[in-house]
Design goal:
The chain has three helices and five strands; from the N terminus they run αββαβββα. The protein is α+β, with helices and mostly antiparallel strands. A hairpin with a 7-residue loop joins strand 4 and strand 5. Helix 1 packs antiparallel against helix 3. The longest helix has 16 residues. About 25% of the residues are buried.
Length: about 110
């Protein structure tokens, strides 16, 4: 994970946490069992950042009982530029406006 990706991901996590989401990081094993996550239902930005980037991609499973829908995702692919967020649930668009603006600024 490079500096640009780190800045964008940090903003994404901050936006999600500020909006009341908890974040689980999938280790991409294909199973949805709780013990297959690198971190489970966390709101600790530093702890989440620490487990990201060890593979080519990560999936953030996010949940917020107050949101509709209460569950969504952010798919991260580490490719060295501002497109690190390659997909996310449509319901997160309003939550990730600061993240999107940062990625656009960093794209130049």
């Amino acid at each position: 994970m490079n500096t640009i990706e780190r800045k964008i991901i940090r903003q994404c996590l901050a936006d999600l946490i500020d909006a009341g989401y908890t974040i689980s990081v999938d280790n991409r094993s294909g199973s949805m069992a709780d013990d297959d996550y690198l971190i489970l239902r966390s709101r600790d930005l530093k702890a989440i950042m620490a487990v990201l980037g060890s593979m080519d991609e990560d999936v953030l499973h996010v949940s917020n009982p107050a949101a509709s829908p209460s569950y969504s995702f952010v798919h991260l692919v580490y490719n060295g530029d501002e497109t690190v967020i390659c997909d996310h649930g449509v319901s997160l668009e309003p939550v990730l406006t600061r993240t999107t603006a940062l990625a656009q600024r960093l794209a130049g």
